[in-house]
Design goal:
Layout lengths: L3 E4 L2 E4 L4 E7 L9 E6 L6 E6 L5 E3 L7 E6 L4 E6 L8 E7 L3 E2 L3 E6 L1
Length: about 110
């Protein structure tokens, strides 16, 4: 059974940066679209960014110009580079593969 494991979350001051990683236990990245989502307390899970198997990317308006999604198929790992972080970016961040497989989430907290 393929599993996804996120890492890289933590506490950072506003304006800082974090890099999230999502590692898969199996070779599934190269043929699937992937994405990062986030869920803040009391709010629904929302899309942050997606990347297709061909490398095309898409971002939520709230993170455009600040976040960058990438993938390394050889390492079965996806990344989310988050710059210029804001307190409203505070949430649990989840990676997703093919719309059906989820990681356990990693907490990102941005202090003002």
């Amino acid at each position: 059974q393929v599993q996804l494991v996120e890492s890289g979350g933590g506490l950072v001051q506003a304006g800082g940066s974090l890099r999230l990683s999502c590692a898969a236990s199996g070779n599934i990245f190269s043929v699937n679209n992937m994405g990062w989502y986030r869920q803040a307390p009391g709010r629904q899970r929302e899309l942050v960014a997606t990347i297709t198997s061909g490398g095309s990317t898409n971002y939520a308006d709230s993170v455009k110009g600040r976040f960058g999604i990438s993938r390394d198929n050889a390492k079965n790992t996806m990344y989310l580079q988050m710059n210029s972080l804001k307190p409203e970016d505070t949430a649990v961040y989840y990676c997703n593969v093919a719309g059906v497989l989820w990681g356990q989430g990693t907490q990102v907290t941005v202090s003002s």
